[in-house]
Design brief:
This protein is mainly alpha-helical. The chain has helices at 3-7, 10-23, 35-42, 46-58, 77-98, 104-119, 126-141, 147-163, 174-190, 193-214, and strands spanning 32-33, 62-65, 69-72.
Length: 215
């Protein structure tokens, strides 16, 4: 077990499992979360469940309504738009800022993430593909050198991952999703700011705007 996992509190571990249940569609948007039921299911105390729900509430993954209970956040059309707009602004800028820092080792790391994506194509494992998508984008953003941008991006990653939840419905195949990231890597290799900026915007906005239109 890694050191980071060992240091997590039980509440943090439960919060992570609940996130995964939302991302895997085991828990639906707007679904009510009962402390007693969760306590029994996870075999932990209600105080631990409350800690987990507080973490998720801070991340805006759940909302607490007075005298009504706690629910999985419904994510309105306004939420989708705001998250996509913020992601586009941050990544388009951060990817360009990362260009002078990129070296052979960094490209090898990004290529390794692409290879992991490729391994998931036959399984159509969208959940894993979306996790790898986040790894790819976060890796480049972290190379931007702007600590405040990195901090803001880190704070919204959970919501970005939630936006990806239903995107599989808009891709004809996992191969297309993989190809988009291959194109992004090739754009980075050109070291051309305009090509990179355009590639990031096209990748983020095209399918996700269809998701907004659907909702």
């Amino acid at each position: 077990m890694s050191e980071s996992i060992v240091q997590e509190s039980l509440g943090e571990q439960i919060a992570d499992q609940l996130r995964r249940k939302i991302w895997n569609r085991e828990l639906q948007f707007g679904e009510r979360l009962l402390e007693s039921e969760l306590s029994n299911n996870f075999d932990v105390s209600r105080s631990t469940i409350r800690e987990a729900l507080k973490i998720l509430e801070y991340e805006e993954m759940v909302i607490s309504k007075a005298r009504k209970g706690t629910y999985v956040s419904p994510f309105s059309e306004k939420d989708w738009k705001e998250i996509i707009e913020l992601r586009t602004l941050i990544e388009a800028h951060a990817f360009v800022q990362a260009l002078p820092q990129l070296n052979e080792g960094h490209f090898e790391k990004l290529y390794a993430i692409l290879e992991q994506m490729k391994e998931q194509l036959n399984n159509s494992n969208w959940s894993k593909l979306f996790d790898l998508d986040m790894n790819f984008h976060s890796y480049v953003v972290n190379l931007s050198g702007n600590s405040r941008i990195i901090k803001i991006y880190d704070s919204i990653q959970v919501q970005i991952r939630t936006v990806l939840l239903h995107l599989d419905e808009y891709y004809s195949s996992p191969q297309v999703f993989y190809q988009e990231h291959k194109d992004l890597l090739e754009a980075l290799q050109t070291n051309d700011k305009d090509i990179v900026r355009r590639g990031v915007k096209n990748h983020i906005e095209y399918v996700e705007e269809q998701l907004i239109a659907e909702h």
